[in-house]
Specification:
Keywords: Hydrolase, Lipid degradation, Lipid metabolism. With 289 residues, this protein is α/β, with parallel strands linked by helices. The chain has a single domain (2-286), classed as 3-Layer(aba) Sandwich (Cytosolic phospholipase A2 catalytic domain). Helices cover 50% and strands 15% of the residues. The chain has 13 helices and 8 strands. Strands 1, 2, 3, 4, 5, 6, 7 and 8 form an 8-stranded mixed sheet that branches. Strand 3 (108-115) and strand 4 (121-125) form a beta hairpin. The chain is globular.
């Protein structure tokens, strides 16, 4: 029985997740494996590489940089977030991603993408943190209408949250029976139908299965939240979530707003750190029996 960490996406709500993860790293809290979706994928990789503070640092440094994210990028390249700057310039030169530490960590790390041809989730295990793994992370975070379809091998991929926003059942299916789940919406949140669905239908006319996955995403998401609530109430899994709606834009340019959400994540984790540690210690003790 393995312990897992499941990271929901949510664009810049992911700063909440970054705050939680930094506290877990500072406290030396580890798990056997982790799976990240969308922002959870691109921010969560720093947990495996043990780079405390990196997510909030590079986001606050470059959130106002038009090379990082801008509508000019979207018009010129088809990507709101610049592929070259975000996934090459920053991790390779400006704020290096420690792929050596990532590779040497014993923790398994998966990311979730959506196959545009089938509308199904694709779960990819990132083993080395190399350029191809980073490409999978990019695909997981490539939001419909705001990013080009990412081609990897025979796949055409977009945002993993479309097909599987909170991959608890996937992790259970591969042996992760006790999990920490970091959500980016408060308790009681109910997802509604995507208001951009007409535009998505028009843009992805060639991919009807993907469009249908977008159309019924809210139903699958809400059902998953109900399942997670059951797991939480039974004590089988431990859920970390913001106390109130985070109210932050998908392309937030104010560093203070990013820090606010990040500090919210830190505060929640610091309050709960003893309970989190106890939950994992109990899970590991049960596994050894």
């Amino acid at each position: 029985m393995k312990t897992g960490l499941i990271l929901e996406g949510g664009a810049m709500r992911g700063m909440f997740t970054a705050g939680v993860l930094d506290v877990l790293m500072e406290q030396g809290i580890t798990v056997d494996g982790m799976v990240g979706v969308s922002a959870g994928a691109v921010f969560g990789c720093n947990y495996k590489s043990h780079q405390i503070g990196r997510t909030i640092r590079y986001n606050t440094t470059y959130c106002n940089d038009k090379r990082y994210a801008s509508f000019r990028n979207l018009l010129r390249t088809g990507n709101l977030y610049s592929e070259d700057f975000c996934y090459h310039e920053v991790p390779e030169k400006l704020d290096p991603f420690d792929d050596k530490a990532f590779r040497e960590s014993p923790m398994d790390y998966f990311v979730v993408c959506t196959d545009v041809r089938t509308g199904d989730p694709i779960y990819h295990k990132c083993r080395t943190g190399d350029a191809e793994d980073v490409r999978w992370m990019e695909a997981s975070a490539s939001m419909p209408l705001a990013a080009k379809i990412v081609k990897i091998g025979h796949y055409g991929l977009l945002d993993g949250g479309v097909a599987d926003s909170i991959p608890i059942r996937f992790f259970e299916s591969i042996g992760y029976k006790r999990n920490l789940i970091i959500l980016t919406q408060p308790k009681g949140f109910v997802k509604k139908k995507n208001p951009m669905l007409p535009a998505i239908r028009a843009r992805y006319l060639r991919y009807p299965a993907f469009v249908e996955a977008v159309a019924d995403r809210h139903e699958r998401y809400n059902e998953t939240l109900s399942y997670i609530s059951m797991l939480e109430q039974s004590g089988k899994d431990y859920v970390i979530r913001p106390p109130i709606p985070l109210e932050i834009g998908a392309m937030e340019r104010d560093p203070d707003q990013l820090r606010r959400v990040y500090e919210t994540g830190r505060a929640v984790a610091q309050i709960q750190v003893d309970k989190i540690r106890a939950f994992l210690e109990t899970a590991k003790a049960e596994a050894e029996e």
